[in-house]
Structure formats: C-alpha cells, structure tokens
Design goal:
Helix content of chain B: 40-55%
Distance between the termini of chain A: 50 Å
Largest sheet of chain A: 6 strands, parallel
Number of helices of chain A: 10
CATH topology of the largest domain in chain A: Rossmann fold
Oligomer: heterodimer
Strand order of the largest sheet of chain A: 1-11-8-7-5-6
CATH superfamily of the largest domain in chain A: NAD(P)-binding Rossmann-like Domain
Distance between the termini of chain B: 53 Å
Shape of chain B: globular
CATH architecture of the largest domain in chain A: 3-Layer(aba) Sandwich
CATH class of the largest domain in chain A: Alpha Beta
Helix content of chain A: 25-40%
Radius of gyration of chain A: 19 Å
CATH class of the largest domain in chain B: Alpha Beta
Largest sheet of chain B: 6 strands, parallel
CATH architecture of the largest domain in chain B: 3-Layer(aba) Sandwich
C-alpha cells in the first residue's frame, strides 16, 4: 500500500490561520510585526527565496523588508547594519541570508544579531538554549520537521528518529529539539554523518527517518523500514527527464520507490518547505509578542 | 580475554603532571592561571567537592579563590559576586558549585559568568558554540570521556556507532556535541533511560556510555563483543564485606561486561577522578587563550 503523503502546504495554511489571529491581537495594541532580511550580494536564488518569505509574511499581515548590502561590504558595515536593526523598535525579527561572501565572518555576524530578534535561531546563545531546553527560537527548518510530524499525527515521542546529515542548520538542532523531555519530543535520536559506511543499516532502524543530506535520491527504498515515516528536508535542482535541458526540484529521498514502503512521506516540493516558511513568520510573531509585553 | 581497564586515576595523574608544565610556561610569561569558585550555603557534599577543587588547583600552581556565601544570599548579591570575578584579570576560570539553594535562579547565575571564563561550559553561548563545532568550553564529564578515549587510542570513531544512555545537559548532550562533529565522524544515538527496547540500541554500539544511576543497569546481554563501555553512574549499595557496610558501584554490571568488552571504565577509579582534572585543564586553557589574546 502506498504511503500517506503528508501535505506540508495544508499544515502551513493551518499555521498561518492561527497566526492571523495573533497578528490581529498585536495590531490591536498598535504593534505590526516586522521581519527584516539582510542580503549581502545579489544571488538570484536568495532573492527568489526572500520573495517567498515576503509573500508568507503578507499572507498573515506582517511587514517585511530586505536590506541589501553590496557583495564587497566589509564586516563592519554588516555588523553596523545588524546593530541598527537590533535597536529599531519597529523590527522584531532579523534573518541573515546565507551563505555570506567568503570575506565575511558568519559566526561573528550571527553572534551580533540580538538573541531577542534572532528568529532563525542562529546566534550561538540561542543554539545553546535550544540544546539546554530553555526558551528560545528554533531554527525554522528543524522546527518545521517537528511541527510537521506532530501536526500530521506522527509525534516523535518514544520513537527512534534517525537523522541523516548533521549540519548546523538542520541535523544538529533537530537532534537538540527532539531529545528534550518535552511534548512533541522525548525521542531516541541518532544523528549520522552522510558518508558513513553502513548508512543503510542504521537508517533501517528508524521509525522516523529524516533526510537532510543535500543529495538527490540519497535515500533509497532498501534504506527504509516497512511503515517508517520519512521526512525529506532536501532541496536539489535535478535535470527533468520529461524536459531535457530543464531543471526541477527534488528532495533527498527516492520518492516513487520509497513511498511504496513508507507509512507516510513528505513530498518535495510541498513538504517541509512550506512549513519552514510559515514557522519563520511564527517566530517573528512570537518575537513581537515578547517585545510588546503581555 | 577480559577488557582493558580504563584507569582514570592513572590518567588523571598523568594529565596533572602535564598541566604543571603548562602552568610553569604561563608563569614565565607573567601569567598565573587563576580559578574561582562560588559556593552558596553549607551543603556538606558541595563543600567537600569545592575543597577538592581548591586543593588540586594549588598542587598544580593554579591560584584559587573559593568564595563561600551564606545560605540566604540574595540573587543580586550572587550576581554582583560573579561580576567581580568576571572583571578580575587574575581570574581566568569561574565555576558555580551546583546545586544552588532553591530561592536562587541557577540559569541566571550561570548565564552571568563571562563565556571566556566559563570553565564548566554551562553558559548557553559555550553550549551553542560547542554544538556548532566552534572553540568554546565543554563540561568536565564529556571532556573527561573524550580525553580517556584519546589517551587509550580509542578515539578513531569514524563510522562507529556510539550509544549514550543519558540526555541531560551535563553528560549526554555535550558528549554528543563532541562526537557528532565532522572531524570525529561517529554516528551518535542519544537514548532516554525510558527508551523502549533499549538493548536493541546498546547491542549495536561500538562505544556505549551509561549514566542513569541504577546499579547493574547495563548487563552483559545488552552489549556486543568488543564494546568499549563507559560508566558514569554512581550508586551506594549494601556490601556486608566492607567496613562501612556500603560501597560505590556504577551502572554497569562490571565483571560480566568486562569479559565481553574491549575496554571498560571501573567505578570507582574510572571517570570520577577525571572530572576535577578536566576543570583544571579548562582553566589552564582559559589562561592560555588569554595569553594568546594579549600577545595579539
């Protein structure tokens, strides 16, 4: 029997529906949440990503802005920009579009973002609080994986979650989120490095398998236990066999084959991506709520 | 053949000898490493532990200043004390002896310690940086385990499976922080003590780490032949043969597991002696980093 397809767009719509009410409440107090992105250079893929974020913000009635710095902007200018946004009472969330040009120090820039406005959870203070189980902002991608699981009725509690890939933006924070002794977490979590020799044998242990490797079709059907829940975080551009010379989006999972074995699976596109975007907005609303007081 | 005993006492003595050399080098540059500890109240266990840290520091030539505050100390006065130590250039490492009395906010106190002096590795900035693979400080238990694996030449963990039964912020999570980094290359599983069917995880493990404080929690049937077994449990059990009628054991059923293991830590004499030593290592590292910053 083919798997249940988890509809990330529907979950994202639900999240935005809930957010609209919170935004209305804030507006009643004279506060309109605002998310500001900082983009260094003119990467077209980044611009298109940020347009998507802006659309998600507009859908719930919050403001967005993008501060563009030239590709050769020095570190001081970047940090000055961050410092101004930290002080701006009208800005509630700041995201720094990565990767930065090579001459810039990413860790220093991320550390400069006020923890109270760090809605992507990249400041080491917030990464630490996440791991310690303290109140903070979760990075939106791992947060999206958790929300998607819980909202689709596949809570990770008591389950074995295997995460393939251990980047600082997905794999590691996801492990940190899911091992907490909290609702929607409390899982047994394995984090693997993608190049490990016997990835298949570890992946097959998973009740919930998370693919975050950045490689198309890296997860094949033989790596999946019958009935497992498969969450695909990958976003890869691959050549479209139906349209030679054209590209399309694909995840890290060999979707057609795995869906015959899995209990439930997220598609790409339309899986974790939309949930992630909605949660970045949710974090911004949360930041505005905290700043505006009870 | 029974497994190698991972002798924490011997290693700890070895590391302390090396530290003496590093301290002497710093002194040549005019820097005497300094450690400060804060104890609030009179819990006898905490008082004796802070005494151990004081004595060990002095033996290595590290200057130590232990601040003992009364049980009813106010939060603001504790924070003020931390602030003094943060500003004191003679102090390179600061630790707060936990637990604090119930009326004090532990997180607030730990977060007030300057991250570059946070030799316990409890400040969120240090926790976050370690998790991201950046230079920081990590707590003594996980660094003690790692040091032990390195010095007994079991630290080549690429493609190996490490299973940690403990998810707390002092042991499980920071140990995962070390072992899940790219340069180590292990596949790391964090198990809750409540994980269903726990032995299905521990039996796959090349390295198993247990810290649940239950005697004979990990029995021979739960490990594979050739495992490296690390025990950070501490339990007082009845022992009619001993003078006090009690003795300390770990979480591992030692004798039978030893027969199957490639290497195993005893309790006592395994990780226990390493923890104070690793705090001192962090303090010397803090002083060395400070010397490096002054040079630049």
């Amino acid at each position: 029997m083919p798997a249940e397809i988890i509809d990330g767009r529907k979950i994202a719509d639900d999240i935005r529906g809930e957010l609209k009410q919170r935004v209305e409440k804030l507006k009643g107090k004279g506060v309109t949440p605002k998310l500001v992105a900082i983009l260094v250079g003119e990467d077209p893929a980044a611009l298109s990503y940020l347009r998507g974020i802006a659309k998600g913000c507009e859908a719930v009635g919050i403001l967005t802005d993008t501060v563009k710095l030239p590709a050769n902007a020095p570190q001081e200018e970047l940090e000055r920009t961050i410092g101004e946004l930290n002080k701006d009472p009208k800005c509630h969330g700041i995201i720094l579009q990565l990767p930065l040009p090579k001459h810039l120090n990413t860790l220093r820039a991320e550390s400069a973002i006020s923890p109270d406005k760090d809605v992507d959870g990249t400041n080491p203070v917030n990464a630490g609080k996440l791991l310690l189980g303290e109140e903070t902002f979760f990075p939106s991608t791992p947060y999206g994986v958790q929300e998607l699981l819980v909202r689709s009725g596949h809570s990770p509690e008591g389950k074995h979650v295997v995460i393939c890939g251990r980047s600082n933006i997905v794999g590691k924070p996801l492990m940190g989120i899911l091992v907490q002794k909290q609702k929607g977490a409390n899982a047994t979590v394995t984090v693997c490095h993608t190049g490990t020799k016997d990835l298949a044998s570890i992946a097959r242990q998973a009740d919930i398998l998370v693919a975050a490797m950045g490689k198309a079709k890296a997860i094949t059907a033989d790596m999946v236990k019958m009935g497992a829940i498969v969450v695909d975080v990958g976003v890869n551009q691959i050549e479209d066999p139906a349209n030679p010379g054209k590209f399309r989006l694909a995840g890290d999972v060999d979707f057609e084959a795995v869906k015959e074995k899995a209990g439930a699976i997220t598609p790409v596109p339309g899986g974790t991506g939309p949930v992630t975007s909605a949660l970045l907005v949710a974090n911004t609303v949360k930041a505005a709520e905290k700043m505006s007081g009870p | 053949m029974p497994g190698t005993i991972l002798d924490g006492k011997k290693l700890s003595a070895e590391i302390r000898e090396e530290l003496k050399g590093r301290v002497a080098k710093l002194k040549e540059k005019g820097i005497t490493p300094g450690i400060a500890g804060i104890l609030v109240g009179e819990d006898p266990g905490s008082a004796s532990y802070i005494g151990l840290k004081e004595k060990a520091s002095e033996e290595l030539g590290i200057s130590s200043r232990m601040v003992r505050l009364p049980q009813n100390t106010k939060q603001e006065d504790l924070l003020k004390e931390i602030e003094h130590l943060n500003e004191d250039p003679m102090i390179h490492g600061i630790f707060i002896q936990l637990p604090l009395p119930g009326h004090l906010d532990e997180n607030k106190a730990l977060n007030a310690v300057l991250p570059e002096k946070d030799v316990d590795g409890f400040h969120p900035v240090n926790v976050g940086k370690a998790w991201m693979g950046q230079e920081s400080f990590l707590p003594a238990t996980p660094t003690g385990i790692w040091e032990m694996l390195v010095r007994y030449r079991y630290s080549d963990l690429k493609d190996k499976e490490v299973v940690i039964v403990n998810v707390d912020s002092l042991v499980g999570k920071p140990l995962a922080s070390i072992l899940a980094q790219e340069k180590v290359g292990a596949n790391v599983t964090l198990c809750q003590p409540s994980t269903p069917n726990l032995s299905s995880y521990t039996r796959r493990a090349d390295v198993v780490v247990v810290s649940v404080n239950k005697p004979k929690f990990l029995i021979a049937d739960m490990v594979k032949q050739g495992v490296i077994a690390i025990d950070f449990g501490s339990n007082w059990i009845d022992d009619p043969a001993s003078k006090t009628g009690k003795r300390t054991v770990g979480d591992i059923d030692f004798e039978p597991v030893k027969e199957k293991a490639e290497a195993i830590t005893p309790v006592p004499g395994g990780l226990g002696p390493m923890t104070v030593t690793m705090l001192l290592v962090n303090t010397v590292v803090a002083a060395e980093r400070r010397a490096e910053r002054m040079r630049k």
